[in-house]
Amino acid sequence: MKKHLFKKIVTQVLVFSFFIGLSVSCQNDDNETEGGYYVRFKANGQQVEFTVQGATIAAFAQAGNTYNAVFTGYDSSSNVGLQVYDNKEITMATYSGYTLSGSSFIGALIHYKDNLGTLYSQDALNPTTSITISEITSSAVKGTFSGILKASGKPDLSITQGEFFVWRSN
Question: pLDDT under 50 in the chain at which residues?
């Protein structure tokens, strides 16, 4: 039951992330980094970086008593999504793991689709992810992240030295 609910929530968040990214990407299709926004990390030691402006974004939402924030970076062949959940407003804090507390999920989720099309996400039953939000302004969000991600039939993917500075859409 918990695993089914988890999969449903992850699917909804991925769809939400996709549509936010799609709607914002039309605003600025160039590859310039005039805003200096980025999402970057090492995936098993290999540097990954997203710097296309309009594709490095943050969005905040609330559904019932669950608050969430989504931070994304993407390009034409790969993407990363960072999500935090809480039963109170998202603030500058560290979010880790992923648990059900009453009727709210609390924690951090990370997904990464590499340029070969493999989708990695944290273990549903024993997540080892962490997202720290160090700055929230009316126009941007900044922080760090790390975790161990999994994909069916693939070795675990270690995400280290993750950092983001993204444009805030709302």
Answer: 2-34
Q: What is the rounded CA–CA span in Å between residue 166 and residue 122?
A: 22
* Alpha carbon distances (Å) from 11 to 32, 75, 111: 31, 20, 11
CA distance 36 to 52: 9
Burial 93-104 (b: 16+ CB within 10 A, else e): eebbebeeeeeb
Record the pTM.
0.81
Q: What are phi and psi of 155, to 5 degrees?
A: -65, 155
Q: How many CA atoms lie within 13 A of 18 on its CB side?
A: 10
Query: What pLDDT, on a 0 to 100 scale, did the predictor assign at position 124?
Result: 74
